[in-house]
């Protein structure tokens, strides 16, 4: 059995893996070579190196383990035709992303950007405009592992959470639930509006100008899902018109965000270059998910964790 | 009964108070006048306007309600001699302070200062050095309302909390406990060291260079208690020698911090000008504590909440 990694884990993570599975041939490369792809039984990849063309050479491949949560860039059709099982690291992002979201929310509430600027001027001033997170209301769009985790943390801070998904069915760590159709009624209640929605037809341009118009004037809008949620022009127009208070954006319709884009320089916009899921512990966590799946696979079992349905896109 | 406020609550907070206690004469001023002090039965103050001299005029005064947590600046002896009851708003700071502390910790872990600087340059880069708060260990010195609240929140983030007080006796939201004498053994375990200790003889220069030397090289040290905890020269020397990773300081030996002080410009020091307890909801919260005490007082009861022992200093 040949397992082909198209990235190289650090030695302290790689060596225990190799030692734990002595009957497996592990190939570690930085990048994908056709030669190794042809020989691989299992591929471990971040997912961005696969395309329709190189999939033609994946003649032995039975399982792709994607060390990533999004799969938009994968050649779904070619993979399905070859009947290759795909599993991913669903849930791996929840800790760093929820921590990033709380970092941004608390930084705004507790005036950290202002404190940093005062420090640069060596200026001792107590005129910070600080408020509290406690007793706010957050509306969370998208209730997978990440949405639940941010809901859990917000509740610990005394925030009321309203979850929002397609069905409006109950979800963990949500005090109340609404469905997409009830957005217009839920938005005016929220001090914080968070999206962690995946990219699907239904989520594309789900938020329109009318939605921003009913937000509280000091609401914090955070997009940590996908950039397709709202047209950048709409967002830009809404924030400049003061329809809401603050935007924290980790994702954009067009990435990277163009250097001359107006969003970079608006005082009440934070541009995070799609890094909220990054963590020094990412590969460690990926391997923690990979190992039990590999054990199952070696026993001939196919009911791995996080098997993906490529036809649905997640 | 005359109740004299030496500050003016906003009308939306003041008016309901006045309406709720129709038999009380409320005087609201911004600042203290001897004339009104002489006539007052009850004084509501932030505490900084009292001194040995003006206390001579407080001949009717029976109760001082201090809308503040620290009382170092109050003329303790003069107040005790007049047998005046003092109560305060103990616990009022816990929400804004714990939120500020979590804001600073998460901002460092999730590289917010770096993200802000990149944005100023309109530079899309993913090279942020981000880590996670989860699975860290925090050592918390001082376990009153604030220490417990920050412990509670840290635990929600999956952090192991070690509490530290004089006795080492169990406290809420602490996974383990140590006493002051065990600091040298506890410090090397901590990724985050937080002090919320009050100013007493025992806490003055409690932390010495040897303590910083045993900290983890990437530890975050946070002083949100009082500046007497460590000599500023010691702190400055320790951080410049790289004994620990990051300092977040809300309090200083000498406040305001002098404009030419080296701490302002060190890259791994955050100077917060003693504002972590500030909140737009401060007066609202103070009055919520004051009202039930006033009801008791009007019934002739003396067992108010948060009665202070001025002889002990807290």
TrEMBL record, chains A, B:
Domain D-isomer specific 2-hydroxyacid dehydrogenase NAD-binding: 102-276
UniProt keywords, alphabetically: NAD, Oxidoreductase
Protein name: D-2-hydroxyacid dehydrogenase
Domain of life: Bacteria
Family annotation (Pfam families): 2-Hacid_dh, 2-Hacid_dh_C
Keyword Transferase: no
Annotated D-isomer specific 2-hydroxyacid dehydrogenase catalytic domain residues: 25-302
